[in-house]
Write a structure and sequence with these properties.
5-stranded parallel sheet, about 30% helix, elongated, disordered N terminus, about 240 residues, 6-stranded parallel sheet
């Protein structure tokens, strides 16, 4: 019997994680407060430069994953802007730009409302969808919905504003060239999606102070479906699992 020793090489995404960044920040804060207690440093003066944390988070996202280059760049820009504002080089604070998020949210909702669906959708979507309801479409405002799709799945369009969706696709199949797209818009909300074990997932959306999380297990055999996630997540999350 031949014993094969495998050396596990962590991927690029696994070396730089949110847990690592938060842990390092906590260690630095602990050292800073310890030095402050013994009179070797002034914690107040150092904490005045707190926007550096935004820059570090953005930098780790850019270095850690190609999918997070855009969100990481946004974090670095906001952090640099806040730092320059604190130092007096820039008069306007980035917080003065918060109405831009309302504009983005409004434009996204209007564009989704005017977009023509690829498959005719009944006026009222039931809680339990059947084989003929091949799309997961829904709008949740300060509310929640739970849906199960059985049979053919052609994608969907989900909006969650201070609300959430629970989509069960474990008994669905993808026959549209093996790929289905779900376009999401999440604002202070969340979407949970359950998929079969033989599907793979590609998160391609933009997350701002939020996340697209693929917690599903990698397919062990033949891949029979490809779920693509697109759209925008602001201060919320989209999670995919088996």
């Amino acid at each position: 019997m031949v014993e094969i020793n495998r050396v596990y090489e962590p991927s690029r995404d696994q070396r730089i994680t949110g847990r690592l960044v938060v842990g390092l920040v906590i260690v630095v804060l602990g050292i800073l407060f310890l030095l402050d207690n013994f009179g070797y440093a002034d914690a107040g003066d150092v904490l005045a430069y707190w926007p550096v944390v935004f820059i570090i988070v953005g930098l780790t996202q850019v270095m850690g994953s190609r999918r997070k280059v855009l969100s990481g760049t946004i974090f670095m820009i906001v952090g640099a802007w806040l730092l320059l504002n604190i130092l007096g080089y820039v008069e306007q604070s980035p917080w003065d730009m918060w109405p831009v998020f309302l504009i983005i949210a409004g434009v996204t909702l209007v564009s989704k409302a005017l977009r023509r669906p690829a498959v005719p959708v009944p006026g009222a979507v039931p809680t339990e969808t059947g084989p003929h309801d091949a799309q997961a479409n829904g709008f949740a405002f300060m509310s929640a919905s739970s849906r199960k799709i059985v049979g053919e799945f052609l994608g969907g369009d989900l909006t969650a504003v201070m609300g959430g969706h629970d989509i069960d696709l474990r008994n669905a199949r993808i026959t549209n060239q093996g790929t289905a797209v779900i376009d999401v818009f999440v604002w202070w909300g969340g979407i949970d999606i359950k998929i079969p074990p033989d599907w793979k997932v590609s998160p391609e959306g933009l997350a701002i102070m939020g996340a697209f999380e693929d917690n599903s297990a990698a397919p062990q055999g033949e891949v029979r479906g490809h779920l693509v996630l697109k759209g925008l997540v602001v201060m919320g999350g989209v999670e995919v699992k088996n």
